[in-house]
Amino acid sequence: MCDRAQNCSRLRSNPPHAMATAPSKCFIVTGPPGIGKTTLVMRVLESLKTSHPHLNIRGFYTREVREASERVGFEVVTLDGRRGTLASSTVLSAESFRWPSVGKYKVDVASFESLALPELQVKEGTDLFIIDEVGKMELFSSSFFPAVLKILESNIPILASIPIPKFGRDIPGVAR
Question: What is the DSSP letter of 14?
Answer without folding.
Answer: S
